[in-house]
Structures are given as C-alpha cells and as structure tokens.
What does this fold into?
Amino acid sequence: MSTVPTVVKLGGSCLDDMTRGWWDDLARHGRNHPLILVHGWSKPLKQLSSRYSDPSAILRDRYGNQSRWTTPEVIADIKTVSDTLGEQVFALLEERGITAERVLGSDGLVQAGQGERWWWRDKQLVELDNLVGPITDVDPGALKNLRAGHCYLVTPLARNTAGQEVNTDADRAAAALAGATGATSLTLVTDVAHLLIDDKPVRRITAQAAADFRDRGATGGMRKKLRAAGEALDRGVERVIIGSAPVSELLAERTGTVITRT
It folds into this structure.
C-alpha cells in the first residue's frame, strides 16, 4: 500500500454524470492509496438558486481572470451544497469499503492572501469587496488520517490574513493540496475527454506549451485548469492529467491529456 496520496479534483458540473463503475474504480484505487478529493460546486449552486446562473454573478478582474462574486451569503450557500455533495460522495464510497470525512479548507487547511479589489462591471473598473483570495499556503497536518482506504473530501474555502472565510478556485486548491501533501500526480476530472488545441485532442504537452495556449487561446474553465496545472508542477507534482475517464485510466495515461514539466 502506498502512503503517497492520490489527489483528484471533481468538477461540480460532472458529478451527476459519474457512473457506478466510475466510483467502483475509484474505490479499488483507494484501497491502496490515500485519497484527497476536492470538489467544485458550480452546477449545484445553479441548481440551488437561479441567481447563480445570472451573468452578473461572475466577475472579471483587470488581468482577465474570472471569479464568482462572493459575499457571506454565497459562502453559506457553498457550504449548503457542499453538505449535500458530501452526503452523496460518502454514501458512494462507504458502500465500497472506503471511509471518508469532509474538511473545509477554511478550518486550518488552506490559507489565502489579499484578494483583488478591482473588477470590471458594465465596462468599468469598480472597487468591490469580493470574498475571494489566492492560496498562499496549505497545512497538510490538518489531514491527520491520510492513509490507504480513507478519503478526505475537501471544500475549497480558505481563511485569509484578516481571518475572513473566502472562496478559492477548486482546481488551484487541488494543485496546492497536491504539492503540499507530496502527491506525484494531480488528476482534474472534468466533462471533456482531452485538452483541445485547434479542435484536436492533445494527449501530452509540456507545462510551457500549456501555458502558452492558456494565454493565447484557452477560455473559461480550461484556462483555470491550465493555470492550476502549472502551479501544481511548480509545487513539485510530476504530472497533471485532465480528462473525463475513471481515475485509474487517467493515471495509467490510457486517455486524457498529460501535462509534464518537460
């Protein structure tokens, strides 16, 4: 059995589409490897309230990065959908022999820095108190039961230097957790089978080439995934795999897109 964790980010938009076979595969892998699952919440939030589907709920900063406009009420809604997701994931894992526990990143696991204050709204830059922040540190000591047969489900919130609970990007949180816990791979499970460049699937790409495409042509969620991939590799992770297949298939590089330092 390995003590090196397998870190997997589960896209909020694809959780409902995962088959029982997908969870069977994850449980088989998890019997021999500690599991850290980081979940997104975009689709569950939209299902909770129509206001999260409003374009005004998404802000863009002066550097072109997108973020959900986060208030204390949004933080509370994130926790609400996270509770429901946790119940679903725990039931799926525990019936397959994997014990599980949920951790809020803001409970001592993930620290964040000062967030951007200037955002585009109605074609103007305005100053907003948006409760988001870039990840600055992860304390792996908060994951005290990191062992084979056990899974941590992490809600990617963080605590900033002012003690505020803030929203963080789930892909980038997974990257920071992978680096802090000594994971050799980061798997980003999404609803697309590969990274596409010029409408062609990419099976393998270097971090530099991925960063060039990120800044040249990637949009939306894939742009954030490529940024997270670069951050994971910078933190010592050996490879990042992006795809929609079972985790063992992605780790074996039989499908998906593999991003490496060289």
Observations:
- The domain at 6-59+67-112+136-260 is CATH 3.40.1160.10 (Carbamate kinase).
